[in-house]
Design goal:
By secondary structure, this protein is of the alpha+beta class. It has seven helices and six strands; from the N terminus they run αβββααααααβββ. Among the domains are: 71 residues, no CATH class; 51 residues. The mean pLDDT is 86.
């Protein structure tokens, strides 16, 4: 039987763990590993089928190792991209380190691969990249009032980006209806032509369901 290149390179001939036959069919599977904010990483893993007794599996017991190494490398790539993004947004690394109570120069070490964040450190970085305003919250030592205001301000700013506002359009009607668990907003826009005649009218609705409101007393 002709030996496969990878077996020669691994200096290992694949043998069936059940019957000892070396008549093995190799099935190569491509897998994509992707972590948030990272580029997808393609890996290939081998599964084997014994042509004599028919059992299938990872006879060389390599796949778990290959996958976990790939996940680790995908995480490093994510952390690199996140730190790069944050620096491009002109957020100072030492300000982030202070806000998150990280030792000085931790981020540059993570970025250069001189050290790696723990699993919770990685999750923290995903959270900060997704919601950069968390840094503001952390900077204020999670003060409940500041946290609420920072959060609402960020949410409203995101909400405004969802509403297509064009300067010449005229809002003829708008309103907001809040119930105990939902928020409904609507705007009616009249598009006018040069002679200020109404060209078209449209109404846009925005609704957020399952919102919980809490009464705030200050
Ligand atoms: Zn076999």
């Amino acid at each position: 039987m002709m030996k496969k290149l990878e077996d020669v390179m691994n200096k290992k001939v694949v043998i069936c763990p059940a019957c000892g036959s070396d008549s093995i069919e190799t099935i190569e599977t491509e897998k994509t590993i992707k972590e948030p904010y990272g580029e997808p990483l393609r890996i290939s893993i081998n599964e084997y089928t014994c042509k004599v007794c028919g059992i299938q599996g990872d006879f060389l017991d390599n796949n778990d190792q290959i996958i976990s190494t790939a996940i680790e490398s995908a995480k490093k790539n994510s952390i690199y991209n996140i730190i790069e993004d944050l620096s491009q947004k002109k957020i100072s690394m030492s300000a982030i380190e202070r806000a998150l109570d990280l030792p000085q120069r931790t981020l540059s070490k993570w970025k250069n691969g001189l050290s790696s964040p723990s699993a919770s450190g990685v999750t923290l970085m995903y959270a900060v990249r997704t919601y950069p305003w968390l840094l503001d919250v952390a900077q204020h030592k999670f003060d409940p009032i500041v946290s609420r205001d920072v959060h609402i301000k960020a949410a409203v700013s995101d909400l405004l980006k969802m509403i297509p506002v064009i300067q010449e359009d005229i809002f003829t009607e708008s309103g907001m209806i809040a119930t105990s668990n939902s928020l409904f907003m609507y705007i009616k826009i009249d598009k006018k032509d040069q002679n200020t005649q109404i060209e078209s009218s449209k109404r846009e609705n925005y609704s957020l369901k399952d919102v919980s409101f809490t009464e705030v007393t200050e």
